[in-house]
Amino acid sequence: MFSVIFVCLGNICRSPMAEAVFKQLIEERGVAQSFKVNSRATSDCEEDNPVYPPAQRTLREHGYNFTHRARQLTLADVKNADYVLVMDGMNYEDVLRMTGSGYADKVLRLGDYLPEKQDIDDPWYTRDFERTYREVYAACNAFLDWITGEHGNAFQYDKLN
Ligand code: 4NP
User: Fold this and answer.
1) How far is the CA of 151 from the centre of ligand 1 (A)?
2) 8, 29, 138, 147 - which has most CB atoms within 10 Å?
3) Catalytic residue among 13, 14, 40, 88
4) 71 tagged catalytic
5) Is the Cβ–Cβ distance between 9 and 120 less than 8 Å?
6) Is 122 a catalytic residue?
7) Which ligand 1 atom is the nearest neighbour of the CA of 8?
């Protein structure tokens, strides 16, 4: 079982989008039983708020039926996770500051799985939620390719129809 947590600043746009996308991808590939998937915020500014409406709308347009309430990341979350996938350099610095550098090995930038090795920019500021969705989708797919390749024997493949 692999525990994956997606992390952004508010946990109302990028990281819930990534949680929704990754959960669907692991279902489609028949490996959902091998994962525990969550998302969290580095800040508490949106604590308990639902997914931001434009992000929710973008998910719905792409066929996702996903609900979530924002929660701030804790030290226990990081201790219990195998992979903490942050969206940008600021998230990375914030997670290390919140947890200590002892956990740096498991903190990864999601956009590093894209050919461009990039931040997933915050749509709260860019207002381009469709671009965020495309980047999150491509990066989650690439991360899943990587982890299934790296740890191939560890996966329980569900029966596919
Ligand atoms: P997220 O976007 O980190 O992708 O969830 C943001 C949400 C809220 C704020 C900033 C970014 N905010 O400043 O409240």
Assistant:
1) 33
2) 8
3) 14
4) no
5) no
6) yes
7) 3
In whole angstroms, give the CA distance from residue 95 to residue 74: 9
Query: Crossing angle for the helix pair 129-150 and 53-61, nearest 10 degrees?
Result: 60
What pLDDT does 98 receive?
A: 95
The Cα–Cα gap between 121 and 13 comes to 11
Residue 131 and residue 33: Cα distance in Å, rounded? 29
* Burial (0-12, 13-18, 19+ Cβ within 10 Å), 131: middle
pLDDT digits (tens, 9 = 90+) for 60-99: 999 999 999 999 999 999 999 999 999 999 999 999 999 9
Please answer whether residues 129 and 54 qualify as being in contact, where contact means their C-beta atoms are separated by less than 8 angstroms.
Answer: yes
Work out the angle at residue 35's Cα, subtended by the Cα atoms of residues 31 and 38, and round it to the nearest 5 degrees.
Answer: 135
**What is the rounded distance in angstroms from the CA atom of residue 54 to the CA atom of residue 124?**
9
Place of tokens 């434009």: 54
Instruction: Select from 76, 71, 100, 96 the least CA-distant residue to 86.
Output: 96
Mean predicted lDDT score pLDDT of the chain: 96
